[in-house]
Write a structure and sequence with these properties.
little secondary structure, 2 domains, 0% strand
Length: 92
């Protein structure tokens, strides 16, 4: 196959160029298990999300307010005297 198409596009021989869901790690993808396997959601830190990125989870160092996180200090969550509990909620 000629790989002359832009990511997510079409090649000159009318085949799909690399894309998220093709089961091959391409470009800026963090993961790609194929279109039927890229189904992990928040909290599943062993799967792959439909965006070909690793899903966020409490403890990844990214505050996901839409998922109810108030804080996320990564491995420092829940440390004695810290402001962020292990559950990604602000300590009282």
């Amino acid at each position: 196959m000629i790989n002359n198409g832009a990511y997510g596009g079409c090649t000159t021989d009318c085949r799909f160029a690399p894309y998220c869901g093709d089961g091959v790690l391409n470009g800026s993808e963090e993961c790609d298990l194929g279109s039927k396997m890229n189904d992990a959601t928040y909290g599943n830190n062993t799967g792959c999300a439909p965006s070909c990125r690793f899903p966020h989870f409490c403890g990844d160092g990214i505050v996901d307010e839409a998922e109810g996180e108030q804080c996320d200090l990564g491995p420092n969550n829940g440390m004695a005297g810290g402001r962020c509990q292990a559950t990604c909620k602000v300590a009282p």
